[in-house]
Design goal:
Helix content is 44%, strand content 16%. It is α/β, with parallel strands linked by helices. The radius of gyration is 29 Å and the shape is flat. It starts with 12 loop residues before the first strand and ends in a 7-residue tail after the last helix. This is tRNA modification GTPase MnmE.
């Protein structure tokens, strides 16, 4: 999206806010200073604020009737964007939507860019940047756990935390500045030391916030689970059984899987991408060798690993060393041979993909690991890399406080820490990140 400031938001925009395609109802949103005039030109008049009114919509040039629709009017500033807004609840046929879009352009509005409604809400002070990101995450949420996390953020949980820290920093800065400005006055002798102690306590809270194992980011983005093991262990069959469809080709011929095959599923509310990989063995050709290399790379980067082996062919020490530690060990084909009691000191999970035995227990074990990796320990977890970088920067500035000999330098440390937090919520220095944030949004939000 192009760079835009507050002065750029003078034109009226519109977008389809409901899903594309045929539907019973389609919702078109409008926002901007020309919204009221555009609605009048199509509907003849504006309804009472926040009251649905049935109107006949006509093209402003030809006068042709386009639809009979419900029209809602939200005058500024009591609207989502803080500007004059309206909604047209149309019949959901493509021809109706296209006709109304053409009429809105003729009435002086333009199609919105991705995220432009929410960006205008941010510019007009209706929400901070973390809330805007929470709305984007809420739209993209695949699981209940993602929905809950996104909703907490959209409702201000992160903003409340960071703004609370900012208020404390502002108070500390005021005390530090008082020490500088009124050094010769009768101030408490330990004022400077008290600021240092309070800053150290705040820094400890920030460091605890950072030491979360990336759970919020993992939940937002989803986990990756790599399925590893020797050829013909049943890895592809296991992937298909877990996702409930034929995502991977299954064959009795060893080495069928040459590349990484991925499929998505919901495990205990956590989105997980299962990655079926090439069998780990001495490759017979350069293509299989590349598949094995990719399998090992995926194992290295995966959040969790499943080592799958046929019950009658336990993995050797070399394979165990590649996959361990921390992998879930799965003994497949237990309908033919009982699983060994332990592999590398770990009791394997016994399954038979052919009969379905043990699959429910394996799914529960996977879900437990996924929940442990992704479940936030706080109601306001870090959900993005830019949050983490800013909090880390703020903590680093506070860490410099003790080494700053001059009161003026200590004040500058506090000021820099506050500015770092301000970048998260959008209070300061965010022009460079606005495009990246709002580019994630769909049209109409």
């Amino acid at each position: 999206m192009r760079q835009q400031g507050l002065s750029s938001y003078k034109d009226a925009i519109f977008a389809l806010a409901s899903g594309a395609g045929r539907a019973a109802v389609a919702v078109v949103r409008l926002s901007g200073s020309g919204t009221g005039e555009a609605v009048r030109r199509l509907a003849g008049s504006l309804p009472a604020p926040r009251t649905a009114s049935l109107k006949r919509l006509r093209h402003p040039d030809s006068g042709e009737t386009l639809d009979r629709a419900l029209v809602l009017w939200f005058p500024a500033p009591s609207s989502y964007t803080g500007e004059d807004c309206a909604e047209l609840h149309l019949h959901g046929g493509p021809a109706v939507i296209a006709g109304v879009a053409d009429a809105l352009v003729a009435a002086g509005t333009r199609p919105a860019e991705p995220g432009e409604f929410t960006r205008r809400a941010f510019v007009h002070g209706k929400m901070d940047l973390t809330a805007a990101e929470g709305i984007a995450d809420l739209i993209a949420a695949e699981t209940a756990a993602q929905r809950r996390q996104a909703l907490h953020q959209a409702e201000g949980a992160l903003a409340s935390l960071y703004e609370g820290w900012t208020r404390r920093l502002t108070g500390l800065l005021a005390r530090q500045e008082a020490f500088i400005e009124f050094e010769t006055e009768d101030l408490p002798s330990d004022l400077d030391a008290a600021v240092g102690r309070a800053a150290a306590a705040l820094r400890a809270e920030m460091e605890a916030h950072l030491a979360d194992g990336g759970r919020g980011e993992r939940l937002r983005e989803g986990l990756v689970a790599a399925i590893l093991g020797a050829p013909n262990a049943g890895k592809s069959s296991l992937l298909n059984a877990l996702v409930g469809r034929d995502a991977a080709i299954v064959s009795a011929r060893a080495g069928t899987t040459r590349d990484v095959v991925e499929a998505r599923l919901d495990l205990g509310g956590v989105p997980v991408t299962l990655a079926d990989t090439a069998g780990l063995r001495e490759a017979s050709d350069e293509i299989e060798a590349e598949g094995v290399r990719r399998a090992l790379l995926r194992a290295e980067s995966a959040d969790l690993r499943l080592l799958v082996f046929a019950a009658d062919s336990p993995p050797d020490a070399e394979t165990l060393a590649l996959v361990a530690p921390g992998a879930l060990v799965v003994a497949n084909k237990t309908d033919l041979t009982p699983a060994p009691a332990a592999i590398g000191g770990v009791a394997p999970i016994s399954v038979s993909v052919r009969t379905g035995a043990g699959l429910a227990a394996l799914q529960e074990a996977l879900a437990a690991v996924a929940r442990d990796l992704a479940r936030p320990e706080a109601t306001a977890p870090i959900t993005r890399g830019r949050h983490r970088a800013a909090v880390r920067d703020a903590a680093a500035r506070l860490a410099e406080l003790d080494g700053a000999g001059l009161p003026e330098l200590r004040a500058e440390c506090l000021r820099a820490a506050s500015a770092a937090l301000g970048r998260i919520t959008g209070r300061v220095g965010v022009e460079a990140v606005l495009d990246a944030v709002f580019r994630e949004f769909c049209i109409g939000k």
